[in-house]
Write a structure and sequence with these properties.
180 residues, alpha/beta, Rossmann fold, six-stranded parallel β-sheet, 6 helices, 34% helix, Nicotinamidase-related amidase, Isochorismatase-like_hydrls
């Protein structure tokens, strides 16, 4: 069975930039999975530091209003990996999931760490590189011209372990299936 993981679509990240396109693509994928009655799991990053915009009691830690109505199943995490000290593994096992699709925020941290951790646990992983975003920029890394989503997508694709698709390729390959 296939499941969709929606990582860190929270105010503290989404409000850092203009992510209309990314949010729209994430919503389309969520609708595909829900239409096919395939599981959609949201991950919510929580920091314990009171100064953090992702502190449990802050508005920044809340799921972004554009997608929160789709969040029937929300798990919390405290590290970039959605698997480390969370209920994700047991949730996926109970659901019989063997193929995990990844969307969300903080491409180069939370999405990438989760994709690698999923692969290490034996899941087939599909990384939807343009259905995710990051609050960081090329300037953050002092790497002029860096396209973070493209770079992370290339690294994962070159690994030959993780399937990397943009939304259009995802539609071509998976949307035509009767069940995702």
């Amino acid at each position: 069975m296939k499941a969709l993981l929606v990582i860190d679509v929270q105010n503290g990240i989404v409000n850092l930039g203009d992510f209309k396109e990314e949010l729209s693509l994430i919503e389309r994928v969520i609708k595909d999975f829900k239409e096919n009655r395939s599981p959609v799991i949201f991950m919510r990053h929580i920091d314990e530091s009171e100064e953090s915009p992702m502190h449990r009691s802050s508005v920044g830690s809340e799921l972004h209003s554009s997608l929160k109505d789709y969040a029937d199943n929300v798990l919390e995490k405290h590290t970039p990996s959605s698997f480390f000290n969370t209920e994700l593994s047991s949730t996926l096992e109970k659901l019989g999931v063997n193929h995990l699709f990844i969307t969300g925020f903080e491409t180069e941290f939370c999405c990438m760490f989760t994709a690698i951790a999923a692969f290490d646990r034996g899941y087939k992983v599909t990384f939807l590189k343009n259905a995710m975003g990051t609050g960081n920029t090329a300037e953050t890394y002092d790497m002029q011209g860096l396209d973070i989503n493209d770079f992370v997508g290339k690294v994962l694709k070159w690994s030959d372990a993780i399937e990397v698709l943009d939304y259009d390729k995802y539609v071509e390959k998976y949307k035509a299936e009767k069940t995702i």
